[in-house]
Amino acid sequence: MTIVLMVKVYQMTDSVFFSGLILSFMSFASVAASFCISGVLHKLGFKKVLAGASLLRAVFALLIAYSVSQDGIAFYIMTLLFVFCFSFSGAFFQPARFALLPVIVSKEHYVKANGVISLANQLFLTAGWGLGGLLTFAAPFEFVVGSAICLFVFSGAVISLLHVNDARTKRTAETASARSVWKDLMTTPIVRDITAMDMIEALAGSVWSSAILLAFTVAVLHETEVWWGIFNASYFIGAMIGSVIAIHFSACFEQNMGYAIIFSSLVMAVLTFLFAVSPLPFLCALACAAMGPFYQVRDICQETVLQEVIPAHKRIGMMAAKNALLTPWSGVTYSIMGLLTDAAGAKTAFISAAVLYGMTFLIALAQPGLSHYKRERHAN
């Protein structure tokens, strides 16, 4: 939906700025939704909200398809309004999914369950962006949007089949004010530091955007776009392998999640630096592939730690606030790293990313709640 919509708006307006507003309105919607997610989930329960979010996205996708197919500034404004509603509905999904997993999965299976979800996300993320880009140019607009609508409806139907105790999930959803949620996010040490790590990592990770990675491939390695594609594929293959490793060795990671986060952060810094200074594209591809497992293991362990340290009645609100903080910031990071690349070159940008990853390692190392993390201290 994101790819085909941005392409369609660009064709509609012949403006990169207006096309880019699509992402801006998606970010605004996520921030706005963070202030009401807790109350809605408390009233309706997780399953109804998850299924409803998917079905609402199907409806707004249909409305977007209509408005973006018309000419005129009025229909463009209407498109932005529908995009806002589309993303507002979708913003409920991640916090509800995050809070629902500990309800339907026993604690000893948190790491394995998060690993399975991460593996599925990587598989469909890889297929989704690749297939989306291909279908945008190879298939009619109506077919692409129609397929997305069918997938949203299918998602909602499958979620509605989940066996969930609605009374329990409603009790789990908090009713605290938005102010107290943001205060908890900033004052809970482990949550605050993991959020800071995620923000720094988002800035570092923006160096892997297609434009900067292509500039590095052409200007630094003096290679063709073929290697650019290989670097992307290598990382995603490594990420999927990392999810499989987390699933297979979940028992080991469950007892050493703090160390896994710290060590993975260090390895990411080292591998990014080696990628930046390596003169051979083959070694760069190996570094990309090696990053995938460590990034995924750290991400899975961080999510599991958050599920354990955040009280059940605060999970939704704090994750919604965290997402509201990270979503617009992620959009800004691409501009920051893009400006650095233009000013100092792609190689400097990657070295800077390695330094940023190193900062996340130091934050994790300095946080006693992570370095000495033990699962038994955080029993449900």
Automatic annotation (TrEMBL):
Domain of life where this protein originates: Bacteria
Keyword NADP: no
Compartment(s) where it occurs, according to its Swiss-Prot or TrEMBL record: Cell membrane
InterPro entries recorded: MFS, MFS_trans_sf
UniProt entry keywords in alphabetical sequence: Cell membrane, Membrane, Transmembrane, Transmembrane helix
Transmembrane portions of the chain: 16-37, 49-67, 73-93, 114-137, 143-162, 202-221, 227-247, 259-277, 349-370
A Pfam family annotated for this UniProt entry: MFS_1
Membrane disposition: Multi-pass membrane protein
Name of the protein: Exporter
Lineage of the organism: Bacteria, Bacillati, Bacillota, Bacilli, Bacillales
